[in-house]
Write a structure and sequence with these properties.
The complex is a heterodimer of chains A (258) and B (330).
Chain A lengths: L5 E9 L4 E10 L4 E5 L6 H9 L5 E6 L2 E2 L5 H5 L2 E4 L11 H7 L13 H13 L15 H14 L4 E5 L7 H18 L2 E5 L3 H7 L2 E6 L2 E6 L1 H4 L2 H8 L3 E6 L2 E7 L2
Helix pairs in contact in A: 3-5, 4-5
Chain B lengths: L5 H22 L2 E2 L2 E2 L4 H31 L12 H12 L7 H4 L3 H20 E2 L2 E2 L1 H29 L5 H4 L13 H28 L3 H6 L4 H23 L5 H13 L3 H25 L5 H28 L1
Antiparallel strand pairs in B: 1-2, 3-4
Helix pairs in contact in B: 1-12, 2-8, 2-10, 2-11, 2-12, 3-5, 3-6, 3-10, 5-6, 5-10, 8-10, 8-12, 11-12, 12-13
Classes of the chains: A alpha/beta (258), B mainly alpha (330).
Chain lengths: 258, 330
């Protein structure tokens, strides 16, 4: 698995005078989950937007070895799906309509759909157990169900990589774990590369192959969770005393020492 | 779950044309000699205003649907954004001798209308934009102000012309202030407007799939393969062109672009691939009906009637939107 999905090298960006990203580098390979952690305002969302070209950052971004600017938008959206922190849908849209919109990069002129478009939607609906909800309005769903639908919209794109900005927002612990388990499964079974921003350090450690710690727009540590999630690093990052509980044969747990 | 394929598109277009045909056909029953199916001679007389109203209604309804989707604002429409009055003002200026200067005289009436529409839209955007975002109610407030300024400019130029006796009959001039369906148009004017509306409608339908994605946030639309900046410009220019084509033959008619997309939404939902053709057919038919209504009501300009009917509709929508925003903020 030497193939690289995403290579971001030396990314820097500022909305105003203050830099939001400072020389950030990261890589994403197929089948791997990389969690980006850091306090609010550390630049996680901007990093995702820079990787997708939604903001023009300095530095190099390559998807599958090809510079970002050489990717036509439509082609890139067939390879890379993005779930923002607060995904949207139109008022009154049904689950089926939201999922079908995920095939927009494949639609022809006049928005004509192919049979493949519908079978992709059906497959994802089955995978995420959304079959019974297909006719329901998004307004009637719980936060967890809505988030599953939005994740489904990303999967319908048939991506090789997914960028998920705090996908567990508004989910209770049960659904957070369910969603992360699903992502783990997709990464393993479909060689999907997942880059996601998370706040929960322990959940990130439990699912990610690699974590990247961001502070004030710069990478302060990256690597396998057990190496990176150290109390000294985390204490500086969150301005809180942190402690780590090592458990034999299992992942360590980090938590504030209060 | 049915696939939106070619057959589905054709059925939607057929249903939209059918909707228009039923409403427009009913309009042909009404004439000055009473309510009955017209004879061959009467048919031509009744057909002309029905067709002109249909072209104008189709243009306004389609433009309204596009504005609402692209601006993500259910209250957006050509009249309320000041686009209609901008186009009408420029057409009025075109009709004056002052437009007969070497550079300007080569421009057509349609071009003037388009310049007016785009100028009004640019002013509205420049004033309503804050940090790259268009707040829905601010957009409408600025649209109202631009409408008022366009009205004031019209009256100013009108007064100047009246004193210098440059203008044509007053009732003809005032159609640029309150829209009405005229029957003294040249065939070329009608054909030019119809062709322009037809071409723009085809472009809008071609883009309707992308317009669906444009209703999401900018980042989501981009990640679904839509070049959102380019799409917005193309869609807004095409919608404004369509509005300008309609305004150049009838003056500003309000609320058709607001009411018809909302009625169509109730009929077929939010999918722009269905909504745009149905709203267009509905707009074409309903303005033809409104024109018959206004003729029965002492030959009022149809803009007066659409204003009376559309105004309360707008207030209900505004109230519902503010209530939804209030509930969302809690």
């Amino acid at each position: 698995m030497n193939e690289m999905l995403l290579r971001a090298q030396g990314l820097s960006f500022a909305y105003t005078a203050k830099p939001v990203l400072r020389d950030v580098s990261l890589r994403l390979r197929p089948g791997r989950i990389v969690a980006v952690l850091g306090p609010n305002g550390s630049g996680k969302s901007t990093l995702f937007r820079a990787a997708l070209g939604h903001v023009r950052a300095q530095g190099v971004v390559e998807w599958e070895g090809r510079p970002l600017r050489q990717w036509p938008q439509r082609q890139l959206s067939r390879r890379v799906a993005y779930l923002p922190q607060f995904p949207t849908c139109d008022e009154g849209q049904t689950v089926a309509q939201v999922l079908r919109l995920g095939r927009a990069p494949y639609w022809g002129a006049f928005g004509l759909e192919s049979e493949q478009d519908l079978s992709a939607v059906r497959e994802v609906a089955q995978l995420l157990e959304l079959g019974e909800l297909m006719g329901r309005s998004m307004d009637e769903l719980s936060g967890g169900q809505r988030q599953r639908v939005f994740l489904g919209r990303c999967l319908v794109q048939g991506p090789r990589a997914m960028l998920l900005d705090e996908p567990s927002t508004s989910l209770d612990l049960h659904y957070q774990v369910e969603m992360l388990k699903l992502l783990r499964r997709l990464a393993s079974e479909q060689s999907l590369g997942v880059l996601m921003a998370l706040h929960d350090l322990n959940l990130a450690a439990s699912v990610a192959d690699e974590v990247v710690l961001l502070d004030d727009g710069a990478v302060v540590a990256s690597g396998v969770p057990a190496d990176v999630l150290r109390p000294d690093v985390l204490s500086r990052l969150y301005s809180l005393p942190m402690e780590r509980i090592d458990r034999e044969g299992r992942l360590p747990v980090v938590l504030p020492a209060i | 779950m049915k696939r939106f394929g070619l057959s589905h598109l054709l059925v939607t277009l057929g249903a939209s044309i059918g909707l228009w045909a039923v409403l427009a056909g009913a309009c042909l029953l009404f004439g000055s000699s009473g309510v009955h199916w017209p004879g061959r001679e009467q048919l031509g007389v009744r057909l002309e205003p029905t067709l002109i109203a249909s072209i104008v209604g189709a243009a306004l309804a389609c433009a309204g649907a596009v504005y609402q989707a692209i601006l993500r604002n259910p209250l957006a429409e050509p009249y309320l954004l000041g686009v209609s009055s901008g186009a009408a003002l420029f057409v009025y200026l075109w009709s004056l001798p002052l437009a007969a200067v070497p550079l300007l005289e080569s421009l057509s009436q349609q071009t003037f209308a388009f310049l007016g529409a785009m100028t009004a839209l640019a002013v509205v955007f420049a004033l309503a934009q804050r940090r790259g975002r268009l707040e829905p109610v601010t957009l409408l407030l600025v649209g109202v102000i631009v409408n008022a300024i366009n009205g004031a400019l019209f009256l100013l130029v009108y007064q100047i012309n009246l004193r210098q006796r440059l203008t044509s009959a007053p009732d003809d001039a005032f159609r640029f202030l309150i829209g009405g369906i005229r029957t003294n148009l040249l065939p070329e004017q009608i054909v030019a407007a119809a062709v322009c509306v037809g071409v723009c409608l085809t472009v809008v339908l071609y883009l309707s799939g992308q317009i669906n994605a444009a209703m999401l946030s900018e980042a989501e639309a981009q990640s679904l393969g839509v070049r959102i900046g380019r799409l917005r410009w193309v869609a807004l220019i095409v919608a404004s062109l369509m509005t300008a084509a309609a305004m150049s033959i009838c003056g500003p008619i309000g609320f058709v672009g607001l009411v018809c997309p909302h009625l169509a939404r109730r009929m077929v939902g939010n999918d722009q691939r269905r909504l745009i053709p149905v709203a267009t057919g509905l707009g074409a038919g309903l303005l033809a009906v409104a024109d018959v209504g206004s003729r029965l009501l002492q030959h009022l300009p149809v803009g007066v009637l659409t204003g009376f009917l559309g105004g309360p509709f707008f207030l209900v929508l505004l109230w519902r939107q503010r209530r939804a925003a209030g509930m969302g903020g809690r």
